[in-house]
């Protein structure tokens, strides 16, 4: 009860509203925040062990080597990522080459459960431990069936338009880098795709989510 009373007087440093119940665990730091505000404040909560939380200044950082290639695309959704590691852009500590958006790897972690692994090199340990340390939440669901696992983690990216009616003159497997026939993969499973025009996606579209996921 005392803790609830104290929390009601704590201000979230992200939204500035009262009722913040999470405090950065760094000694000497008194920043508090609401759990829903954590992404906007670039805060990290580790969903294992002591369930520690960190503000943007004291959150764990990835120590990755410079990227061997210049392919600045997410290994999951294939959209562009930042050219450096940040809160929103993460990487695999094993292959040092895979890059992905935080929200993409979080969705993949929840989908894969205990079979969670790097979408590029398929490393599971230390990849999983690194992701947990960086605040990625892992579901405890059993591994997916082999057929599902092959779809999610296969090196062969999905390259087919799954729209009910494909309007592309070149067919469902035709794809272009830009324009109406650009292929978009589902941001949740990366196992379904659509041409931009076939799902009436605008030129300003940043991601696409299949309604059946």
Automatic annotation (TrEMBL):
InterPro entries registered for this protein in UniProt? EPHD (IPR034732), PHD-type_Zinc_Finger (IPR051188), PHD_PHF7/G2E3-like (IPR059102), Znf_FYVE_PHD (IPR011011), Znf_RING (IPR001841), Znf_RING/FYVE/PHD (IPR013083)
The segment(s) forming the RING-type domain are 74-121
Q: Its domain of life? A: Eukaryota
List, alphabetically, the Gene3D superfamilies matched. Answer: Zinc/RING finger domain, C3HC4 (zinc finger)
Name the Pfam families for this protein.
Answer: PHD_G2E3 (PF26054), zf-HC5HC2H (PF13771)
User: Per UniProt, which keywords does this protein have?
Assistant: Metal-binding, Zinc, Zinc-finger
Please give an example of a GO cellular component term from this record. nucleus
Q: What name appears for this protein in its UniProt entry?
A: PHF7 protein
Gene encoding the protein:
Phf7
């Amino acid at each position: 009860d005392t803790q609830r009373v104290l929390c009601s007087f704590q201000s979230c440093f992200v939204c500035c509203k009262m009722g913040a119940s999470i405090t950065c665990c760094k000694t000497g730091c008194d920043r508090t925040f609401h759990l829903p505000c954590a992404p906007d404040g670039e805060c990290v909560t580790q969903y294992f062990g002591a369930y520690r939380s960190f503000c943007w200044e004291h959150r764990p950082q990835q120590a990755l080597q410079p990227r061997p290639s210049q392919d600045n695309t997410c290994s999951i959704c294939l959209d562009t990522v930042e050219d450096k590691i940040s809160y929103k852009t993460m990487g695999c500590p094993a292959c040092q080459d895979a890059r992905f958006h935080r929200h993409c790897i979080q969705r993949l972690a929840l989908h894969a459960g205990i079979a969670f692994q790097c979408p590029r090199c398929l490393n599971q340990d230390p990849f999983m431990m690194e992701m947990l340390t960086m605040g990625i939440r892992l579901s405890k669901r059993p591994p997916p069936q082999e057929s599902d696992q092959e779809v999610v983690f296969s090196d062969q990216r999905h390259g087919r338009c799954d729209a009910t009616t494909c309007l592309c003159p070149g067919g469902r497997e035709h794809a272009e880098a830009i324009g109406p026939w650009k292929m978009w993969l589902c941001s949740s499973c990366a196992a379904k795709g659509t041409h931009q025009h076939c799902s009436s996606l605008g030129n300003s579209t940043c991601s696409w989510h299949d309604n059946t996921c």
